[in-house]
Amino acid sequence: MKLPTPPPCFKKLFSALFIACLAMPLHADSWPQAEVGAEAAGFTAEGIERLDDAMREIVANQDVAGMVWMLGKDGQIATFEAAGLASIDDQTPMTKDSLFRIYSMSKPVTGVAMMMLWEQGLWDFDDPISKHVPEFANLKVLSSYDNNGNVELEELERQPTMRELMSNTAGFAYGLFGNDPANQAFREQEVLASSDLNELIQKVAAIPLMAQPGEQWYYSIGMDIQGYIVEQLTGMSFGEYLRQHLFEPLDMMDTRFYVLPEDVDRFAQVHYWDAERNTLAQQAERPDRPSYLDADRLESGGGGLVSSTHDYARFIQMLVNNGELDGVRILKPESVRIMSTNSLTGDEDMRYGIGGPGQPGQGWGVDMAVLYDPQAAGSPQGPGTYYWAGAAGTSFWIDPVNDIFWLSMIQAQGPRRPGAANMGEVARDIIYESLAE
After folding, report:
1. How far apart (Å, rounded) are the C-alpha atoms in residues 92 and 87?
2. pTM higher than 0.85 for the full model?
């Protein structure tokens, strides 16, 4: 039997409903969705308008190709907007649902996983790392070296502890910078391109520490080591542990170590400033790393996660709420306090490399940085503000004194436009100038 042709008004209705469904957020019932307005969130309307205009201007000036940004206060969203392009080559618009390589913003996520296991009594801050990673029992320390390839090593004075692993003071290198033998070995052995965490641990165990444990803050491979420890303590893969115990309970279902086939169109691409052409250009995929579309790529707790603005905002708000969101408790308040409290003292202040300049007023808690003296750091933020960022420009900070968080998601790496704005400072200054009396 031939069905009757629907009248034209039905066709228009179905078309409208289809378009509306496409425009709906993927997390239609999950905070956050939209802003409540500047004044309802504790800011002036003029200030938030100025903030949004400043972010759009940064995109229009080609400082970045596209951006998603969110500002929250007291559990309310003052602004949640997107601008620009997710892909220059395809001219794909950036949307609130775009996916991002968050790189080192994976580190606080790893820290939360570790603190969940600390609450269960599965490890202690004073444990030697080798208790959980026996491969590290015989680590050596870089003593001296010269340009002729002469290297001297020394024995450990004591085993590095879990506390030092969490605070980047255990002595491990990273390979991201530094021409010393330890960092060179990280690059030559392609530690960050390991096929899995077992291979990564084997490689790290054979590379000397930069310094004796506890002597120096050095940005390190420590959070990838923590991912391996999660696996040893739980008997689960790191990614599976995160999925079951963090991502699913928090409705962070866009967050994982790879991009699902159905989400490829949402995956924002990395760009840089092409000085020869005087314009932004899209980076090619790295040939020395597995593709983000490969579900078997390294589950790097230091820099491997993909996430969305929605998901990471929920992670942030859980921390703001001292470990709980929407009735789901992930951590106890004590654990959040430990994570967000500076554990460094004096000359240990964050230094990117042996002998490098320290960053005044800024220290390290568990897997993220802490601003313990805003005046020394030249910041209007409250004392105890904690934060971190990713290599492609994603960044967040949480000011617990003023109950404010800021989240900006971009994908930019490499050269920047000459004279490009420091968007982090631009946003920060406008935000504090916009607080309602």
Report:
1. 5
2. yes
